[in-house]
Design a protein that fits this description.
This protein is α+β, with helices and mostly antiparallel strands. It has one domain: Actin, Chain A, domain 4 (Alpha-Beta Complex), CATH 3.90.640.90. Helices cover 54% and strands 14% of the residues. The chain contains 9 helices and 4 strands. A hairpin with a 2-residue loop joins strand 2 and strand 3. The chain is globular, with a radius of gyration of 16 Å. This is BTG1 protein. InterPro entries: Anti_prolifrtn, BTG, BTG-like_sf. Belongs to the BTG family.
């Protein structure tokens, strides 16, 4: 996991940063140049934060550490990047969902808006080692997840966070 680890995170990190940037753009009132700076700063903050917490051989390891959370508190990495373009936490709370969870793991980036929202996958790539086929079968798409989530939010939530 030497210097190679950083390069491996590139897709996951840029996917996560692009997603949060899209949410900011959709909310309006933030200029393109500011958004570009935000995305770069956010990627940099994640790279720094995840440097020694990225385990492609055990993708779920460190998942909680890498999780980006807005839950009545602003995630420090988003807050830091937003500060670089002069957006206050108050302003961020107006622009972004008040409940947002973003999981940035090796081979997969997914998010959930709201506490019992469905979990949607933004990026997924097969894991080296041939476990991918089995993993995908146990996966549910956003739509199915939404249906399951309606009946038992806590169960589908545990299913996604507890690694098998």
């Amino acid at each position: 996991a030497g210097s190679g680890a950083g390069a491996d995170m590139r897709t996951e990190i840029s996917t996560a940063a692009a997603f949060v940037t899209r949410l900011l753009r959709a909310a309006g009132g933030v200029g393109e140049e500011q958004l570009r700076c935000f995305r770069e700063c956010f990627q940099e903050a994640m790279r720094e934060h995840y440097k020694h917490h990225w385990f492609p051989l055990v993708p779920s390891k460190g998942s909680g550490y890498r999780c980006i959370r807005i839950n009545h508190k602003m995630d420090p990495l988003i807050g830091k990047a937003a500060g670089m373009i002069g957006l206050s936490h108050e302003r961020l709370f107006q622009l972004l969902p008040s409940e947002l969870t973003l999981w940035v793991d090796p081979f997969e980036v997914s998010y959930r808006i709201g506490e019992d929202g469905s979990i949607c996958v933004l990026y997924e790539s097969p894991q080296p080692g041939g476990k991918a086929a089995k993993q995908l079968e146990s996966r549910t798409s956003c739509k199915e997840e939404w249906r399951i989530g309606r009946s038992s939010p806590s169960k589908s939530y545990n299913m996604m966070t507890v690694s098998s």
